[in-house]
Write a structure and sequence with these properties.
The complex is a heterodimer of chains A (about 180) and B (about 260).
Chain A (H helix, E strand, L loop, with lengths): L1 H12 L15 E2 L5 E2 L2 E3 L13 H12 L1 H15 L10 H4 L6 H11 L2 E3 L7 H17 L3 H22 L7 E3 L2 E3 L1
Parallel strand pairs in A: 3-4
Antiparallel strand pairs in A: 1-2, 5-6
Helix pairs in contact in A: 6-7
Chain B lengths: L1 H15 L2 E2 L7 E2 L3 H9 L1 H33 L3 H16 L6 H5 L7 H9 L15 H12 L3 H12 L2 H10 L4 H12 L1 H16 L3 H6 L12 H11 L3 H9 L9
Antiparallel strand pairs in B: 1-2
Helix pairs in contact in B: 1-14, 3-4, 3-7, 3-8, 3-11, 3-13, 8-11, 13-14
Classes of the chains: A mainly alpha (about 180), B mainly alpha (about 260).
């Protein structure tokens, strides 16, 4: 979460406003059942092991060791001990996160928000999704385009690119419906 | 040297433009498909082409005359001031990435330098989104490109002014030249013809190849592709979509870019 970086930056770099600000869950839309949908887009990193490697087992052991709660928590704490609070480790291990020295109120909010983190699915050609969502947004805000039209137009563009990439990788082309009409 | 670094890459590029090549796997021959796509399907290519020609036609000549004008102006000054001013004018081209300061000048909120200035004067009521508004950002880029453009050809012009034989002016004065304009027109410009031609080529090719400025100031890809240029389009295919065949195909269709690639 880029948010965490921002929090630590503010905390460390702007001591003059400490205590004048706090964090809160991202505002969202109330759903029909009364709960609030606070979804935000986010991403994560992955670790990969190449299949050609000669030390497959060792690599797997290493990965398991590295992502384990103990090691992640220890790494985070030691990093912070050396570099100060500005280097608070942004671990992906949710359990390890609870061992890092966050104030408990902040931690509660962060772990609430964490549940609403959604990643844009990575498919061949998915770089086109964020690009054209951006374009659709800009066309609506800047040029006054009708939202539905903009989304439809760019959905077509995105689908075209995904189709091209699926073709390139020899994957099956999906049949898609846009406003009730089957494309392809 | 010439063969290894120029001829072979060009030939390989032409061959690869007929293939489907993604760097990782071996290229697969697909005939004219890339070219068909380029000319018949790709709308963004048309936008990029249009923007590139706008740059070439507007900033190319403008920057050329700016170079000439400033070089001439500086040439009239005493040597010490001349070297200081040369450095000042050449500095933007020298420190190429420094155009980043324009993000502050053209920042889209009220704290942006230009927005704040215009709002203080009461010319505009709300901040203008200089770099993100797809209707104007191309022109903002042109301003920055002009600022950057006092480069090599500017120096060439200054050198050209310096090397003109002084005795020509004396001879001309004897022959009846009456004012500075005639001096400029009949002696100065003809005697620095090589520099002028060199400058013209430099300015026009460099405005054909505008890319970095757009990517750095406006973002890549720019909103609605409003500041997309040919080089950026190739960049998109080459380094984001990994379709080298298409990328080379565009390259082949855009000869001035051989200067860069």
């Amino acid at each position: 979460m880029a948010l965490i970086l921002c929090i630590t930056n503010l905390k460390v770099a702007a001591p003059e406003i400490s205590g004048l600000w706090g964090i809160a869950p991202v505002p969202g839309r109330r759903k029909r059942d009364g709960s609030i949908d606070r979804s935000v887009a986010g991403g994560g990193n992955a670790i990969l092991i190449f299949s050609q490697t000669k030390k497959l087992k060792e690599a797997w052991e290493f990965v398991k060791w590295w992502v384990s709660t103990d090691v992640q928590a220890r790494f985070g704490r030691e990093l912070e001990a050396v570099l100060g609070a500005g280097a608070r480790y942004n671990t992906a291990n949710i359990e390890a996160m609870s061992y890092l020295p966050w104030p408990s109120s902040d931690y509660k909010i962060l772990s609430t928000q964490w549940r609403y983190l959604k990643e844009i699915p990575n498919v061949p050609g998915s770089y086109y999704v964020s690009r054209h969502l951006d374009n659709a947004f800009r066309e609506v805000v800047m040029l006054g385009e009708i939202p539905r039209e903009a989304i439809e137009k760019y959905t077509r563009e995105i689908n075209k690119e995904i189709d091209r990439k699926r073709e390139e990788f020899g994957l099956e082309l999906a049949k898609r419906m846009i406003l009730g009409e089957v494309i392809k | 040297m010439f063969f290894t670094f120029v001829v072979i890459p060009v030939i390989v590029g032409i061959i690869l433009s007929f293939t489907n090549y993604n760097i990782i796997q071996a290229p697969r021959f697909i005939g004219w498909n890339n070219y068909k796509r380029l000319f018949l399907e790709d709308d963004v290519f048309l936008i990029a082409l249009q923007n590139t020609f706008k740059f070439a036609l507007i900033t190319g000549p403008l920057s050329y005359f700016a170079c000439l004008f400033f070089a001439w102006l500086i040439n009239e000054l005493p040597p010490k001031i001349r070297s200081v001013l040369t450095l000042l004018y050449y500095a933007p081209a020298l420190s190429s990435a420094i155009f980043f300061i324009w993000t502050y000048i053209f920042s889209g909120d009220v704290y942006g330098l230009l927005n704040g200035f215009l709002m203080n004067l009461g010319i505009i009521k709300e901040p203008i989104y200089w770099l993100q508004d797809s209707r104007i950002n191309l022109y903002v880029l042109m301003v920055v490109q002009l600022w950057m453009s006092l480069g090599t050809s500017f120096l060439a012009f200054i050198a050209g002014f310096q090397t003109i034989d002084r005795s020509l002016y004396e001879a001309a004065a004897v022959d009846g030249i009456r004012n500075r304009w005639q001096e400029l027109w009949y002696i100065t410009l003809p005697s620095m013809k090589p520099q002028l031609i060199f400058g013209a080529i430099m300015q026009v090719t460099s405005s054909f190849a505008v890319a970095d400025i757009s990517a750095q100031l406006i973002g890549f890809p720019s909103p609605l592709y409003s500041a997309h240029t040919i080089v950026l389009h190739m960049w998109d295919y080459g380094s984001i979509r990994y379709e080298m065949g298409v990328c080379f195909c565009y390259c082949c269709n855009f000869v001035p870019n051989y200067c860069r690639h």
